[in-house]
Amino acid sequence: MAEEELPSVLILDIGGTHGVLEDLAALLKKHFHLITMKQFLENKEEMSKKIQSIFVFECRPTIDHELLESLPNLKVIGNSGVGVDHLDLKMISSFGVKVTNTPHAVADPTADLGMALMLASARRLVEGNVLNFLG
Question: Where is each D-isomer specific 2-hydroxyacid dehydrogenase catalytic domain found (predicted)?
Fold first, then answer.
């Protein structure tokens, strides 16, 4: 499938401090034409018609009224995380845009860490490690 045929998704950036991780961007590129916020702002008129989705990574880009108004073909906002507290769902839905997230993405790792902490506490592993280090 040619890149022009792929649906366009807006992301903040690739890599750097706040951008989508490069491995994740490579995966996204298999299914989407990625448009960074910088590319969008440099050519807003042309890009705004192409963007059908926004991929929110670590609460970025910020979804506000101005951004939603500038994207007439936006259909969905995909949030790469469990919660959507950082998104104004009522405002977003007023534009006819759907919001998705990954509600069970961290369920197993959270349970694993919880069990590890309980076992470490019950067996006093931290204290034992400190004594072993000092002693």
Answer: 22-114
| Phi-psi domain of 120 (left: phi exceeds 0; alpha: psi -120 through 50; beta: other) | alpha
The one-letter amino acid code at 41 reads: L
Helix H or strand E segment including 126: helix 125-134
Structural domain boundaries in the chain: 8-103, 105-134
Q: In what order do the strands lie in the sheet with 8-11?
A: 33-36, 8-11, 51-56, 76-79, 98-100
Please tell me the pTM assigned to this model.
0.77
Contacts 24+ apart (CB under 8 A), 19-23: 19/57, 20/55, 20/57, 21/57
Local structure of 12: helix, strand or coil: coil
Secondary structure (3-state) at 54: strand
The upper half-sphere exposure of residue 133, i.e. CA atoms within 13 Å in the direction of its Cβ, equals 6
What amino acid occupies position 3? E
pLDDT digits (tens, 9 = 90+) for 10-48: 999 999 989 999 999 999 999 999 999 999 999 999 999
Q: Do the beta carbons of residue 18 and residue 12 sit within 8 Å?
A: yes
